[in-house]
Amino acid sequence: MEGIKEYFYIALRNLRTRSLRSWLTIFGIIIGVFLIISLLSLSQGMKKMISQQLRALGGETILVMPGDLSNLIAMFMSGAKLEKEDISAIKKTEGVDKVLTMSYQALVVRYENQSKTILADGLSWEEGVDVLERFQGWSLKSGEWPTIGRREVVIGSQVETEVFEKPIKVGSELTIKGRKFEVVGILNSLGSKQDDASIYLDLPIYQDITGEKKGTGKMAMITIKEGEDANRVAEKVKENLQEVRKRRAGTDVADFSVITSEKMSGIAGSILAIIQFAIIAFASIAILVGGIGIMNTMFTSVRERTREIGIMKAIGAKNSAILTIFLFEAGIIGFLGGIGGTILGISFAKLIETHGQIHPLFYFSASITPGLIIFGLVFSFLVGCFSGLFPARRAAKLKPVEALRRYE
Amino acid sequence: MPEPIIKLENVWKVYQLGKVELPALKEINLEITPGSFITIMGPSGSGKSTLLNMIGVLDFPTKGKIYLKGKDISLFSENQLAQFRGQTIGFVFQEFNLLPNLTALENVVLPMVFQGKSENEIKKRGEELLISVGLEERIPHLPSELSGGERQRVAIARAFANNPEMVIADEPTGNLDSITGKIIMDVLTNFHKKEGKTIVVVTHDPNIASYSEEIVNIKDGQITLNHQQATKVLWKV
């Protein structure tokens, strides 16, 4: 089509002439795109982080957690634990190889006159090291694994340098709940910020300092014997735990969840899909409002510039030329809104991510990919064009003589 | 006799105002031959502007035929008509009608942009036209930075951008003082004499009519007199 460059230039000039109105309209789009980009990058980051953690679980592990998985919030908030008998029943189940019991809590850790709240994980090292190395890919960057029964800790790779002002080294001393612990090992990155920013200690010692009942745990990770089927072993674990429940409390109501890592992946995937759907739905409303703003601006513009349209038609402009000029105007509004929204969205997501690194319990990760940026820009341009389509068509269809006569 | 650029044959234009029919033009027959300089005169509401719209193929008649270089315009699509209009007819309006956001040069080259001419060609032609109307100093200026006379000269340069055969001017001096009005008419006459362009002017002003070779008087939507300048009979109130 002839004159595309010139039409673009005319559109740009028109927008500059109505700069305040143009900027206000652009602002509407900025808000919408900002919401979409920031929320999408954060939810994608969350998905990536969870996927990493689930991948680390491997295909042949089973998780046992107290509480009912159908009510996740209640499960995590209840503070329910696996009792000693439960863990013993799990260990005795046919097909079970090793059981890694764990418990966790945010604790104030003191190092070099500085105190920080860090997530502390108590792990049953006796079985744990083997499970963690083989199934979760844990490895030490320096030092060694703690000796069972001693006040020794290994730290995540972020704790080494990013939590305290002074870096922690192997041999450094940490104070937790008034007791001194020696750092004996530093882990390589585990691929999840939450894991990298935690410290790990022997479960009985952890229970000593936190006052948690010995022999219990908040979660158990089971590895299965070679040749066994994870689903079958999970069923057996469930049966045994129900037996224990019946004996202990006289009820067979399942207040625990036994799931294979495969099933866990599926559950997490569906939850994340729902979250993302909700995010997109809300952000779409914001974009819709922005789009209506563009449409309103463009309709006003067509009405104000009816005479100009008449002049252009009188001097030989075809309908397509008028349509292109107005579509360019709407597209530019959308695109500029997209640039602004994408920059703001990315900055906000990065800010949240940075804040998440500082705080010990919340680890947001932002996933900013070239695809997301391109999506933000193309999407906003298309929203602009689509919103401008009807006003532009109205402008293009004006009869030259009517357009010239109007506002005379 | 050369083929007329525009031929109006029994043209009627009737506006429908609710249930009332208001005829603006009644059985108009008019031929505009190449190289002529015609003035259309008539009182306010006589149908001058409607006639001008017909001559400029900006509007279609309710009845009758309009032929643009021998072709019936009712057979043209809207886009074909825009293209043909852009190539054959230039317009000068009383209110100048320049696009306020574009410079003098950009306004002048716009009809060429719509005809899909090359960037280099249109820039050169635009500058030449502005120089020919004495505005070489005003090339990069916006309409708001120009005087009324300068704006009208830009509009005239724009009207000649595509080297059209005919230029239609609707009260071209209506918003100008008499001295500036004379400059504008000199510019138009210059194009007519030097390049043999056909000029059609609508005016109230007998002085402006005196530049033309043929005068068409219109009253109540009908041509009352159509005569050569030699037998001058101007419109009288």
Comma- or semicolon-separated keywords:
heterodimer; A: 408 residues; alpha+beta; six-stranded mixed β-barrel; 14 helices; 10 strands; B: 237 residues; alpha/beta; six-stranded mixed β-sheet; 7 helices
Explained architecture:
The complex is a heterodimer of chains A (408) and B (237). Chain A has 408 residues and is an alpha+beta fold. Helices cover 60% and strands 17% of the residues of chain A. In chain A, strands 2-3-8-5-7-6 form a 6-stranded mixed barrel, surrounded by 4 helices. The longest helix of chain B is centred in the C-terminal third of the chain and has 18 residues, at 178-195. Chain B is globular and about 50 Å long. In chain B, strand 9 and strand 10 (222-228) form a beta hairpin. The two termini of chain B are 35 Å apart. In chain B, helix 4 (119-132) crosses helix 5 and helix 5 packs parallel to helix 6 (178-195). Classes of the chains: A alpha+beta (408), B alpha/beta (237). The interface between A and B is medium-sized, with 27 and 29 residues.
Order of helices and strands of chain B: EEEHEEHEHHHEHEHEE
Helix content of chain B: 25-40%
What count of helical segments of chain B does DSSP give?
7
How far is the first residue's CA from the last residue's CA of chain A? 32 Å
| Rg for CA atoms of chain B | 18 Å
SSE topology:
The complex is a heterodimer of chains A (408) and B (237).
Chain A: H1 4-17, H2 19-57, E1 61-66, H3 72-77, H4 84-92, E2 96-111, E3 114-123, H5 125-135, E4 140-143, E5 152-155, H6 157-163, E6 173-176, E7 179-187, H7 193-196, E8 198-202, H8 203-210, E9 219-224, H9 230-249, E10 256-260, H10 261-304, H11 306-314, H12 319-358, H13 370-397, H14 400-405
Parallel strand pairs in A: 3-8, 5-7
Antiparallel strand pairs in A: 1-9, 1-10, 2-3, 2-6, 2-9, 4-7, 5-8, 6-7
Helix pairs in contact in A: 1-12, 2-10, 2-12, 2-13, 4-9, 10-12, 10-13, 12-13
Chain B: E1 6-17, E2 20-32, E3 37-41, H1 48-55, E4 63-68, E5 71-72, H2 78-88, E6 89-92, H3 104-114, H4 119-132, H5 148-159, E7 166-170, H6 178-195, E8 198-203, H7 206-209, E9 214-219, E10 222-228
Parallel strand pairs in B: 3-8, 3-9, 6-7, 7-8
Antiparallel strand pairs in B: 1-2, 1-4, 4-5, 9-10
Helix pairs in contact in B: 3-4, 3-5, 4-5, 5-6
